[in-house]
Amino acid sequence: MKRILLTTTSLVLAAGVAQADVTFSGTAGIALIDDNGASAAAGVTAAGQAAAASAAAAAVVTAEAAKLTADAAVTAAGAAVTAAQTAAATAAATAVTTATAAATAATTAAAAAGVNAATTAARAANADMFFESYYDFDITASAESDNGVSVSVGFDMGAGNKIDYNDDDVLEAQGNSIGDADVTVSYAGWSLAVDHAGIDNLFDDDAGAQDFMVSGTVAGWSVAMTSDESASTSSYSVSGNVGGVALTLTGTDVKSVGGDASKIAASYAMGNGLTLSASVQDEDGVAEDENKVGFSYAMDALTVSYTSIKPGGVAGSDSFGDEWDFSVKYTAGPLVASFAIDEADATTVIADYALGGGASAFAAMHDKAGTNSDLTAVGLNFAF
After folding, report:
1. Which of 142, 161, 169 is nearest to 153 (CA)?
2. I want to staple 298 with a disulfide (CB 3.0 to 4.6 A). Which of 145, 171, 273, 382 is the partner?
């Protein structure tokens, strides 16, 4: 009986595996990078860099001893205490407060000096060009039940750092723990995705990871909501089309972007190569509220774009055009090249060339405000 039972169980498991679709995908690449030491400096923190402000700390000890002496004199005098003794006790208490504040400021300054020195040293040590390589391997298995409920599970693994040359210019560590559970359940056009601390905030993907997302469509509009239960934060997104105008509303209550932040964006393609766009952003308590209007115009292989920005909460910059972005993109077969500049004369030049078979080559040169933000990178990426 034991042999029959084991054989039957193995058949059931095999049948279950056969019903699932398993896909494998990923990316890999190498790059030669010069980021003026920005990636090395990013790892420098106050922890381990704080310096002791010994002189200020000694002043606090001296002041506290003087206060104890003055208080003792007042106590010993009792009802016969003199005005001079009371004044001395008050002055001693004030001296302790002053010395403590000075010590705190000195310690903070010493820590900052330590961080600044360590940051400078880190930049100097990694100021020349260096190689980076990475891989990111994704595995997804999906299956659908007889009643229409579909389930997918995925995880990825990876190593190394990928240079994000066409966005924020930082080195991005690749791969998550394969123990992370990334599961999505879908039914009738709606999906529930659960991945603890692994789902992007819909308002700002740098504003903290969320734990689950519900998404679907209502009357032709795409809607989504995310939440992080432990931090009690959430984000949302609603997008659709009204009379040819594409509308998107996003928002979140994450404090790092001001709390109760929201953004409405609209774009309209006029059909002659011209696309108009506008957006309004409101973030409570921070100086990042922005209003934007812009256009892009496609002329064969060329696309020209311009955006005028009215920044919020920036002294001396509160009108449209105080900030702006301008770019030109050229597309010809496997080549895509672009040039961008803004009001601060920060320039970006990027070229991507598709080599075929999932491989591509790139070159990027970014000259931004302050040499610490400059970037030069060339490399190869491969998608499979």
Report:
1. 142
2. 273
Report CA dihedral (65, 68, 70, 74) to the nearest 10 degrees: -170
Confidence of residue 372 (pLDDT cuts 50, 70, 90): low
C-beta neighbour count of 12 within 10 angstroms: 9
Q: What is the pLDDT of residue 17?
A: 42
Cα dist from 188 to 123, 224, 286, whole Å: 53, 15, 40
348: CB partners within 8 A, 6+ apart: 338, 339, 340, 341, 364, 365, 366, 367, 368
**Residue 332 CA: distances (Å) to CA of 336, 352, 363:** 7, 11, 16
End-to-end CA distance of the chain: 47
Of 378, 353, 364, the residue nearest 32 (C-alpha): 378
* 120-134 confidence digits (pLDDT tens): 665 665 667 889 999
Q: What is the mean pLDDT of the chain?
A: 81
Q: Is the pLDDT of residue 190 over 90?
A: yes
Q: How far apart are CA 227 and CA 229, in angstroms?
A: 6
319 burial type by CB count under 10 A (0-12 exposed, 13-18 middle, 19+ buried): exposed
